[in-house]
Amino acid sequence: MRLPVAQAVELIESKGLLKRERQDQSGKVIAHVAEVLGRDLPTDLIDFYRERIARIGDFTSIVPDWNEYVGWRMPDSWIRRLLHLDAVPIFDDGCGNIFGLDLRPDVDVPAVYFFDHERDFEAPEWAAGSSIGTFLLILAESDRAVDEGWPDGWELEIDPDIERCPRAPAIWNAG
């Protein structure tokens, strides 16, 4: 299900769960990431970078940060970390794992997947959202879902297409 990134961000911000970067470096970020990856970026990823998301709840975005004195603060290796899997990191979970966006060229609406550091990011473990917009909404509700003991599959209420992500199953089917 494609949900525009801006619409998802607006909903999350209205709940007080979103923190933005103070400065708008999105133009530089978009150009830099495209250069590092050596390809055009999907529209949803460009929209994601334009929203200047620093964090959602306890989850930190993985976005290069430009500083006039030292240059790019995030090493390019972080941007390339999932490139061997045709994905780009967009969030970390605070435990070393990465949520990455599918970059395969034949995908119209790229999904977001969870990559486990304990398995050396060898493959997507489970689908985290069928688009960046739906992923952001799921991410914003994930702490609450855990705290309140929501049942497996609660994500379907937000993202009815999450089970159709082609590269990995939804978390409740991941085993």
3D structure, described in words:
The protein has one domain: SMI1/KNR4-like. It is 30% helix and 19% strand. By secondary structure, the chain is of the alpha+beta class. The model has no long low-confidence stretch (mean pLDDT 93). A seven-stranded antiparallel beta sheet has the order 1-2-3-6-7-8-9. Strands 4-5 form a two-stranded antiparallel sheet.
| CA(first)-CA(last) distance | 24 Å
Cross-sheet strand order for the largest sheet: 1-2-3-6-7-8-9
Q: Which term fits the overall shape?
A: globular
- What share of the residues lie within helices? 25-40%
Give a quick precis of the structure.
The strands form two sheets. A seven-stranded antiparallel β-sheet has the order 1-2-3-6-7-8-9. It has a two-stranded antiparallel ribbon with strand order 4-5.
